[in-house]
């Protein structure tokens, strides 16, 4: 499988199966990469549940998206902690998680304390590629924001059951802070998980999706909603292009990190 990969926060990562970085996904002028067809993102009230569990993870003018999965636990993408300029992993204390953010106003914020990843030892991403299935991190923050604003539950269901063609009821949606709508929370309702695949025999499975997620949406939650109940089934990791030329999103299934939250 030949894929061109562009990480949603703005960092480009090369892999054995990727093409040259210069060929990375580019959007038409005035249109961000990651928008697939019509732009289906809609603004939502960031003070209502479950949207108030989603926030911006800020550092030095840059940001990713994160979501509260515990009283003081924020789930996001691991690559958000990699500093491409210094070629080092940044300390958690450099990050601030802001909930209820909307046009400069916010409900609360907390400072990072530490983070957990899939790695026993953090890899040097200037020398090796980040495997997509490992692109998750759980940030511990210094305030129990989840007590006040709520948390979302991670799904333990079979990941393949959420792929289009197998999904018999409910709907899939994605919500995050996109770079081109940096100051409001947007949601793409009724988007699609199209595939549940391994990029190589040695890698864990990931999703391909058609949710409108672009730079800034790294770490943003993808929910399954049924009867008003929201379950987190994945987080957005990257935008890519298949060898056919079709632009896709890549997401990390909850099965990769649920065991680190629920014993």
Instruction: State the order of secondary-structure elements, H for helix, E for strand.
Output: EEEEEEEEEEHEEEEEEEE
Unreliably modeled segments: 1-29
What would the CATH topology of the largest domain be? Thrombin, subunit H
Taking all Cα atoms into account, the compactness measure Rg is 17 Å
Average pLDDT rating: 88
Main β-sheet: number of strands, strand sense, barrel status? Answer: 10 strands, mixed
Secondary structure tally: strands: 18
CATH homology-level superfamily of the largest domain: Trypsin-like serine proteases
CATH class of the largest domain: Mainly Beta
Topology:
Layout lengths: L2 E5 L34 E2 L10 E6 L2 E9 L2 E4 L5 E2 L4 E2 L6 E4 L8 E10 L19 E5 L3 H5 L3 E2 L16 E6 L9 E6 L1 E5 L8 E4 L11 E6 L2 E14 L4 E7 L10
Parallel strand pairs: 11-17
Antiparallel strand pairs: 1-17, 2-13, 3-4, 3-8, 4-5, 5-10, 6-7, 8-9, 9-10, 12-13, 12-16, 14-15, 15-18, 16-17, 17-18
Describe this structure in words.
The structure is a single chain. By secondary structure, this protein is mostly beta strands. The chain folds into 2 domains: 128 residues, Trypsin-like serine proteases (Thrombin, subunit H); 99 residues, Thrombin, subunit H (Beta Barrel), CATH 2.40.10. It is 2% helix and 38% strand. The chain has 1 helix and 18 strands. The strands form 3 sheets. Strands 1, 2, 11, 12, 13, 14, 15, 16, 17 and 18 form a 10-stranded mixed sheet that branches. Strands 3-4-5-10-9-8 form a 6-stranded antiparallel barrel. Strands 6-7 form a two-stranded antiparallel ribbon. The relative contact order is 0.23. The N terminus is likely disordered.
